[in-house]
Design brief:
Shape: elongated
Number of strands: 0
Oligomer: single chain
Distance between the termini: 68 Å
């Protein structure tokens, strides 16, 4: 058989394997998300919201969070102590980076 055909066949097999792996990971993530329902917080229940943020913060260093959000580490520290003393924009940026989807309803 032509070497070029063999090379193409190997590439196709490699791509199929990679696609299968990506789809398996995606399916696994979907299955995991079913076990973790989206948290909701009443507007005046900042304690649970901040506790959830602190828990999620453990998975990332303060320096990494600072680099990813372009918000100073001291601001992030203050935010995690008392989110009412920070801007909504900064709060939403950090929450989003921590994987929290927050929306505000009127």
């Amino acid at each position: 058989m032509n070497p070029k055909v063999l090379q193409l066949r190997d590439q196709v097999n490699s791509l199929e394997s990679h696609m299968h792996s990506v789809l398996e990971d995606l399916l696994h993530n979907i299955e995991d998300s079913v076990d973790r329902p989206i948290s909701t917080y009443p507007i005046y229940d900042k304690d649970n919201l901040v506790a959830d943020m602190r828990q999620r913060k453990k998975a990332i260093s303060l320096e990494e969070l600072e680099l990813q959000t372009d918000i100073s580490s001291s601001t992030i520290k203050r935010m995690l102590k008392d989110p009412s003393k920070t801007s909504l924009d900064n709060f939403l940026t950090v929450a989003n980076e921590l994987g929290m989807k927050i929306w505000i309803e009127k």
